[in-house]
Amino acid sequence: MMTAEQPILQVLDRYRCAVTAKDVDAFAALYDDEVLVFDLWGRWCHRGLADWRATAAEWFGSLADDERVLVEFSDTHVAVAHDLAIAHAFVTYRAVSANGTDRRSLDNRMSATLRLKSGRWKIVHEHTSAPVDAASSKVQLKR
User: Fold this and answer.
1) pTM summary value
2) pLDDT by residue (tens digit) across 78-90?
3) Are residues 116 and 83 in contact, defined by beta-carbon separation less than 8 angstroms?
4) Cα end-to-end distance, the chain, whole Å
5) Secondary structure of the chain as H, E, C letters
6) What's the CA gap between 15 and 122, in Å, rounded?
């Protein structure tokens, strides 16, 4: 029997797979056309799927040909109410070479709001962040 949380966890798993495969189409398919993303990197927000898709294409394109990013979610929590769901987790992104050697990694916090539309859960809002050290004002990218 499927729990209410399982479809949301499946969205997170598809996110993980899309990033690892550097598959912009699969990544974009997770999001609503009118998504609003508060990303950790560079800009205050991304409005709409076209904007967020372009950002994903830039991210995946910036990776070396022999490099992929492994995504690991931990402390994941999901709440579902009718056609809305909220998920939050800690996320580790590890860039690895073709032979599996770690190149770099960072940790992030992610919250996502999803809406059930036409039988599919789509991310309508995503917020990623990392804490800032009060003394140095530097972002802490390791948990």
Assistant:
1) 0.93
2) 999 999 999 999 9
3) yes
4) 35
5) CCCCCHHHHHHHHHHHHHHHHCCHHHHHCCEEEEEEEECCCCCCCEECHHHHHHHHHHHHHHCCCCEEEEEEEEEEEEEEECCEEEEEEEEEEEEEECCCCEEEEEEEEEEEEEEEECCEEEEEEEEEECCECCCCCCECCCC
6) 11
- Which strands, in side-by-side order, build the sheet including 67-81? 46-47, 31-38, 120-129, 102-117, 84-97, 67-81
Query: Mean pLDDT for the chain?
Result: 94
Q: What are phi and psi of 99, to 5 degrees?
A: -90, 5
Nearest to 15 by CA among 143, 122, 105: 122
Total count of residues recorded for the chain: 143
Give CA separation, 99 vs 62, 74, 95, 96, in Å.
Answer: 19, 25, 11, 8
Record the tokens describing residue 11, joined without a space.
């969205």
Q: CA 39 to CA 3: how far, in whole Å?
A: 29
